[in-house]
Amino acid sequence: MTYFIDRRPNAKHKSAVNRQRFLERYRKHIKRSVEEAVNRRSITDMERGEKISIPTKDISEPVFQHGPGGARNIVSPGNKEFLEGDKIRRPAGQGGGNGAGEGGASNQGEGNDEFAFTLSREEFLEFVFDGLELPHLQRKPLKSLEEIKMVRAGLARDGVPSRISITRSMREAYARRIAMRAPIKRALKEAQEALAAEERKDPVLRNPARVVELKAEIERLEKRIDAIPFIDTYDLRYHQLAAQPQPSSQAVMFCVMDVSGSMTQNHKDIAKRFFLLLYLFLEKHYEKVELVFVRHHTAAREVNEEEFFYSRETGGTIVSSALNLVNKIIEKRYPAGQWNLYVAQASDGDNWDDDSNICRDLLVKQLMPQLQYYAYVEITPHDHQSLWHEYETVAAQFPERFAMRQIVDAGDIYPVFRELFKRRMSQER
């Protein structure tokens, strides 16, 4: 049997290839540990790695051994308990141990703890956001700043070695050798035929000087053929690249958070953790996604990232103020024909009674026809209020592009986030 061992050097004497193979093999265990880690972390502690433990029994490898085979007779001196044909029972198992957590204490035997290793920040985030994507992301028409893709644009005689076309270069070399050898081979064939005719003559009529001359000519022509190079710099061809404008798949995510007086500090912490997950997800997987942060109570304001997460401003609740602001920003800076538009809203569901109907009309008539996706999370352990019921009407009209979920405590954040942004098989590319 032949064994192939990957000994390519990696940073810190580790094999990146083997590590990726290990992570893929135990993906189920690792993902479960990552989900638990996400639920117990604070809002400021989402970007570091994580220490993962896998039970020893789950990393055991199958082993083939040669057994004794056949029927065996064993003589046990001093046996007072068993007779011939008796079956020996397995010893009842306390202590001794084949691993961690297998029974009580013992003064003998050896065991192994769970296998523990540390995920890097990139690996941790990869498992956190595995299988997630922005729903219904579409290619939009070109903007003034076009997305450029380098594509092949024929062949050229000049270029860098990394873009050499081996097939075309060898074809050119073969054609050149045929073209250069053809007249020489014809002359060689004529000289060989003349020499053969001269040598077939009677010795009396044969011209020795002519024979010597023809042999010299044949030798010279053969050297000329051998001197033709197999490949020449003239034969080399290189792939030429040209910049080609591409449709842009740029997107903008509006993060809308309720900071009214009815939102307790616990509610705000849950909302911040949800938006922090969203922020990390977009930062990791998408290069051309802009974030717009909107906080609202009775009035809505566009704020920066730091103010969005840490400002203590509060007040009453008018949700439509935030929706009106989002609509104005879209009209001013993000036309729907050029951008993929997304909104993620977090609230406790409390709203001024007469305002919920206004929110519904704003969504149905103005926002939803422009948006790719709207995600609403309601952070409350209580019964839903008027805003939720009005949003249900919107969800019924736009079932594919409007999603709403309830979060009761911090443990619901990650499962709800995965439900809202899970990969859809019918995603339009």
Explain this structure.
The chain is α/β, with parallel strands linked by helices and 429 residues long. The protein folds into 3 domains: 1-59 and 115-128, no CATH class; 161-240; 251-420, von Willebrand factor, type A domain (Rossmann fold, 3-Layer(aba) Sandwich), CATH 3.40.50. It contains 11 helices and 10 strands. It has helices spanning 16-25, 27-40, 121-128, 166-200, 208-227, 265-285, 305-310, 320-333, 355-367, 386-397, 413-420, and strands at 50-54, 115-119, 147-156, 238-246, 251-258, 289-296, 300-303, 340-347, 373-379, 402-407. The strands form 3 sheets. It has a 6-stranded mixed beta sheet with strand order 7-6-5-8-9-10, sandwiched between helices. It has a two-stranded antiparallel ribbon with strand order 1-2. Strand 8 (340-347), helix 9 and strand 9 (373-379) form a beta-alpha-beta unit. Helix 4 (166-200) packs antiparallel against helix 5 (208-227) and helix 9 (355-367) runs parallel beside helix 10. Residues 94-112 have low confidence and may be disordered.
